[in-house]
């Protein structure tokens, strides 16, 4: 096939077989967020390149090598958003909705774009559900974010498959002192570090902690620990968060090497990780970014948020066999009509039924096909019942009502009684 007729590498179609699971996942999260009082915000998927450079940080993987950046026809440099926080902060500032200390609890969902090497769980267009909370500075809100995701894992049946990792990066002052100590340590071992870490040591030393190189990891065992450099306020904040997680009974591990890839984090950072997806193990990640709004030109405004990768969570639901049974059935009733007159009657009958049962999933297959082929389709649709309308039924103003899943014999139902009858046999969502 010619290349222009193929999707771009790492950008996937989500086919009709997969969308029920996506909608189940997104619907479950949306309902949960509604219940906790979060409100949805929708931002454009393109922003000025400068926005991402300024917020995410010049010396990060995203800005250095992952952004889709192009000049538009005006000559402005634009970028397909690689994440949601920058755009969300831009939006709240632009519309002044965090001014005067107003609390905002916001969430968003949509595609993100990063030029990475595509592999299972890692794509160039992927999807996140993220949330951001502004103007709440205590550990209670950090805890709420984590408690909410814990509830989500519970609803999805994933609790046993995920683990919470936590760390505190302190304030920018304490992180600065730690950075100095770390650079001093790394400098003393520079000849034993891998090339990537030698480079990062100069540009973004905390990222060295993130290395996947086992030899570098071995050296880091003796490196200074962030925990020893935390200021009192950050320490109290971290203790407050842990106490709340303990109170709710959410297990966690402290991972002193968890630094996250972006520059803007402070104090709390966390990741939910799984060993069920191979190398792409982080399904939800976030943290506090108290300095970001100010860094982007706003008044000092505490912020905290996270984002989860929808593809990875959908993969997990599949891998762990947690796809709800009912998703395989997208139709309740399948109506087969035979002949032109019956077809017309089927149309008006089905519309009458929809008037009375607006949530009924009723598929009408009028026209083409023999009795046998229509039944095959009815069966394949997953419907619980078929309705049959041919010349005989038409003459008597009834339909044949045929259970497709072994729930009894076929019966005749009068048109006037059909909606009431269907209401008793189909549980409506
Ligand atoms: P990773 O370490 O896996 O590259 P990250 O730290 O770059 O992740 P974040 O920017 O924190 O990821 O994004 C939050 C979540 O979005 C990740 O935990 C993951 O679930 C998902 N995610 C990030 N990048 C991708 C991608 N390229 N493809 C699919 N999902 C992704
Ligand atoms: Mg990444």
Outline the structure in words.
The chain is of the alpha+beta class and 429 residues long. The chain is 39% helix and 20% strand. It has helices at 19-35, 49-56, 61-66, 85-94, 139-156, 172-188, 195-203, 214-220, 232-248, 292-295, 310-319, 340-356, 371-380, 391-396, 415-425; strands at 39-40, 46-48, 68-71, 77-80, 104-113, 125-134, 163-168, 253-254, 266-273, 282-288, 303-309, 333-337, 362-365, 385-389, 398-403, 411-414. An eight-stranded mixed sheet has the order 1-5-6-11-10-9-7-8. Strands 13-12-14-15-16 form a five-stranded mixed sheet, with helices on both faces. A hairpin with a 5-residue loop joins strand 3 and strand 4. Helix 1 (19-35) packs antiparallel against helix 5 and helix 5 runs parallel beside helix 9 (232-248). It is elongated, with a radius of gyration of 28 Å.
List the keywords.
alpha+beta; BirA Bifunctional Protein, domain 2; Rossmann fold; eight-stranded mixed sheet; five-stranded mixed sheet; 15 helices; elongated; binds adenosine-5'-triphosphate; binds magnesium ion
List the helices and strands and how they pair.
Elements: H1 19-35, E1 39-40, E2 46-48, H2 49-56, H3 61-66, E3 68-71, E4 77-80, H4 85-94, E5 104-113, E6 125-134, H5 139-156, E7 163-168, H6 172-188, H7 195-203, H8 214-220, H9 232-248, E8 253-254, E9 266-273, E10 282-288, H10 292-295, E11 303-309, H11 310-319, E12 333-337, H12 340-356, E13 362-365, H13 371-380, E14 385-389, H14 391-396, E15 398-403, E16 411-414, H15 415-425
Parallel strand pairs: 1-5, 7-8, 12-13, 12-14
Antiparallel strand pairs: 2-4, 3-4, 5-6, 6-11, 7-9, 9-10, 10-11, 14-15, 15-16
The chain binds adenosine-5'-triphosphate and magnesium ion.
The site of magnesium ion has 2 residues, from loops.
């Amino acid at each position: 096939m010619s290349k222009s007729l193929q999707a771009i590498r790492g950008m996937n179609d989500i086919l009709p077989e997969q969308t029920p699971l996506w909608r189940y996942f997104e619907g479950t999260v949306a309902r949960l967020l509604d219940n906790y009082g979060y409100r949805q915000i929708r931002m454009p998927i393109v922003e000025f390149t400068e926005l991402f450079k300024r917020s995410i940080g010049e010396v990060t993987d995203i800005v250095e090598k992952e952004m889709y950046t192009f000049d538009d026809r005006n000559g402005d440099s634009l970028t397909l958003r690689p994440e949601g926080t920058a755009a969300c902060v831009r939006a709240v500032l632009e519309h002044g909705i965090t001014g005067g200390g107003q609390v905002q609890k916001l969430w968003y969902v949509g595609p993100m774009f990063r030029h990475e090497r595509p592999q299972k769980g890692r794509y160039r267009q992927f999807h996140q559900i993220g949330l951001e909370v502004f103007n709440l500075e205590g550990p209670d809100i950090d805890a709420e974010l984590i408690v909410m995701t814990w509830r989500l894992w519970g609803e999805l049946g994933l609790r046993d498959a995920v683990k919470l990792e936590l760390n505190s990066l302190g304030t920018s002052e304490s992180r600065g002192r730690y950075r100095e100590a770390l650079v001093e340590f790394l400098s003393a071992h520079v000849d034993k570090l891998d090339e990537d870490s030698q480079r990062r040591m100069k540009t973004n030393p905390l990222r060295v902690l993130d290395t996947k190189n086992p030899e570098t990891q071995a050296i880091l065992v003796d490196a200074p620990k962030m925990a020893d450099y935390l200021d009192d306020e950050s320490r109290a904040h971290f203790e407050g968060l842990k106490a709340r997680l303990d109170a709710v009974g959410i297990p966690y591990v402290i991972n002193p090497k968890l630094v996250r890839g972006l520059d803007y984090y402070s104090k709390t950072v966390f990741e939910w990780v799984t060993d069920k997806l191979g190398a792409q193990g982080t399904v939800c990640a976030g943290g506090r970014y108290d300095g970001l709004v100010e860094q982007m030109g706003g008044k000092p405004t505490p912020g905290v948020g996270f984002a989860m990768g929808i593809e990875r969570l959908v993969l997990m639901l599949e891998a762990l066999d947690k796809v709800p049974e009912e998703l395989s059935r997208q139709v309740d009733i399948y109506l087969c009509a035979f002949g032109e007159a019956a077809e017309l009657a089927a149309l008006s009958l089905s519309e009458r039924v929809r008037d009375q049962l607006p949530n009924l999933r009723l598929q009408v297959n009028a026209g083409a096909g023999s009795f046998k082929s229509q039944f095959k389709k009815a069966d394949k649709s997953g419907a619980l019942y078929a309705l049959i309308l041919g010349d005989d039924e038409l003459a008597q103003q009834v339909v044949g009502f045929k259970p497709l899943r072994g729930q009894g014999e076929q019966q005749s139902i009068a048109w006037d009684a059909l909606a009431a009858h269907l209401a008793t046999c189909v549980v409506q969502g």
